[in-house]
Specification:
The chain is built from 6 helices and 4 strands; from the N terminus they run ββββαααααα. With about 160 residues, the chain is mainly α. The protein has one domain. The strands form 2 sheets. A two-stranded antiparallel sheet has the order 1-2. The chain has a two-stranded antiparallel sheet with strand order 3-4. A hairpin with a 2-residue loop joins strand 1 and strand 2. Helix 3 packs across helix 6.
Length: about 160
């Protein structure tokens, strides 16, 4: 928020408007290369590698920014965490290894502890935010308890010492 009480969520420079993101550096830790091209339906002349945020960094960043977000955005972020876990669930040992060896060591000890505390607090009970997250998808039915339990279990494994 600005001093006058207005939201301060975007900035404009040289004609480009961008959303301000907290803990952006987390999204740059050990990105995953993805090969894209015509075979993936993208209209590019030659295939190329792009770098995308690894799912563990994405989850950690979503946990850390939730207090800065509106309730609607918090619900959206909970759904993103849930969907990331569902998509990369078979890779849970890889996500844990990323947290243990790459992400956690870059964080101050207090912030790393805060991440694990946020994961526990956010998914310990079904809340209005989790209920709202479960209602967002139009293409499937999710129960709030399923969202909570999936996230709680996966994050407890990912962040266990």
């Amino acid at each position: 928020m600005k001093r006058n009480g207005k939201p301060d969520a975007t900035m404009a420079r040289n004609g480009v408007t961008a959303q301000k993101l907290k803990h952006l550096e987390l999204l740059l830790i050990e990105p995953w290369p993805i090969r894209v091209g015509a075979a993936q339906g993208l209209p590019v002349a030659t295939p190329m590698n792009i770098l995308v945020t690894n799912p563990a960094s994405f989850i950690v960043q979503k946990l850390l920014i939730q207090k800065y977000r509106s309730v609607d955005k918090q619900a959206q972020d909970v759904l993103y965490i849930h969907d990331t876990i569902e998509l990369f669930g078979p890779s849970l040992p890889t996500l844990k290894a990323l947290w243990d060896t790459t992400i956690q060591p870059t964080l101050p000890t207090k912030v790393a502890r805060h991440v694990t505390m946020l994961a526990t607090e956010t998914f310990s009970d079904v809340t209005d935010i989790i209920r709202s997250a479960a209602r967002i998808p139009q293409d499937r039915t999710l129960s709030p308890e399923r969202v909570r339990a999936t996230c709680q279990l996966a994050l407890s494994v990912m962040f266990q010492s």
